[in-house]
Amino acid sequence: MARKIEWTQVGVSSGPTFLSPGWISGKDSELLFTSGCVGNDASGQYPEDVETQTRNALENLKRVLAAGSTDFDHVLKVLLFVSDGSTAATVNKVYQEYFPGSPSRSCIVVSFPDTRIKVELECIAEVPGK
Length: 130
Description:
Blueprint: E1 7-10, E2 22-25, E3 31-34, E4 37-38, H1 50-67, E5 75-82, H2 88-98, E6 104-109, E7 119-126
Parallel strand pairs: 5-6
Antiparallel strand pairs: 1-2, 2-3, 3-7, 4-7, 5-7
Helix pairs in contact: 1-2
């Protein structure tokens, strides 16, 4: 028998205004699916260096996870987009600080519509206690 999946939007109350919401699936599900989080700061500005943008993107993702009652320890899969493959070592260095457990990850080099963006992350996380 088919089961209807219901979604609940998870928003954040502080931080950059460009934060996209996350979505928790169904009443019986345990997963939070986030939209992409980019490396802008609280004022909406994008730092020039990829290291700071990566930290900002991860902190922005952290806020979305918290709004969905979860955290980095419960992330199952990360989709990482970078604008320049040559920055992968820098991005990976920062990423490892936040994800020492190394959840599954894909990394894709893309051309962002806004050329100030150097990195974007989205993830699927378990919501503990659901």
